[in-house]
Amino acid sequence: MLTQKGRAKNWEPNSPKNVDVTRAKGFECVSSSPHSKMEEQKENIHDQDENKKPLESRPRGTPYVKTTCPAHSSIVEPVPVEPTSHGEFSDPVYKEIALANGHINRMSRDELRAKLAELKLDTRGVKDVMKKRLKSYYKKQKLTLSASEAGTFYDFICVVDFEATCEENNPQDFEHEIIEFPIVLIDTQKLEIVDTFQEYVKPELNPKLSDFCIQLTGITQKMVDDADTFPAVLRRVVRWMQEKELGTKHRYTLLTDGSWDMSKFLNIQCRLSGIRYPAFARKWINIRKSYGNFYKVPRTNTKLSSMLEKLGLQYEGRPHCGLDDSHNIARIALRMLQDGCHLRVNEHMHEGQLQSVPSSAPLEGAPPPHNPKSRH
Fold first, then answer.
1. Which residue of the set 46, 50, 96, 163 is catalytic?
2. Is pLDDT at 66 greater than 70 in this prediction?
3. 35-80+152-356 has which fold?
4. Which residue of 49, 58, 216, 337 has the fewest CB atoms within a 10 Å radius of its CB?
């Protein structure tokens, strides 16, 4: 179900309208084949942020509702991916095991014996034997915990992929304004997309869209002219999330394709709108990092098109339509959960700056969504 200011719009499976043109009140989608230059620029925008090394910081029952995106393809086995030796992309659980091993290596013989006794393990043997015994115990515990937690800590995951104003050659100081706010809701227990939200947003700083932006996103001038400004749309987003009982009854988090959506688009938009950055969006899963870590591929192979291809999936819908992008990102996340990946928050905003969340950080869900206060 596609919610638009409280109204629903159904879709027809395999209808050409979903790929090329949809013309319904409040939801127009302009037919346009992806332009290679546009595609390259959009990906480069993400890559500029991805290539920066972030600072390290230490009962259910939601009904299944069809989305406006094309029907899901049948499950297929992922294409084998050649593992790499890039330590940066090792699975987070092994980083935790390495940290535990380092701590064990620094323990004295008496400390080792005391810890083994505490865990009701055999305390006999020389120091190296006790180290090995303790390391094996922690490795087994970590791997068992990781397998049991995979995809189950969060009840729901909100996939977000904003579309924003842009020029063909953006000036360095260009202020991007959000013009489409989509959310695709994943139920991690059912392993299904259960609902979607989408609204267009009226830009205020640069109210007239560039021809490049219209061609890239398929969002027309009329669509943003007829839309509400960002604060009003954000209030409806919060209400939609509250109706789902996210953060109260259900644990949840956000997920994005890269760092750009939250650290740049949302950050800039909140400043331009004179509101504080929403607390529920301060932490998220960057699926590019999660994908690279889990399948052990370099970051250059984690663009949306590459991730889909390696998993044996095809893009469904119109590239750079925010809702369709979010839908396809959600399909990747679902496949990763099915493959046993433990999706967890790996990035956050701290005092307006993007930072990494270490894999050793405790798991926690996003707070209940509330409307952010004014900056003044």
1. 163
2. no
3. Nucleotidyltransferase; domain 5 (3.30.420)
4. 58
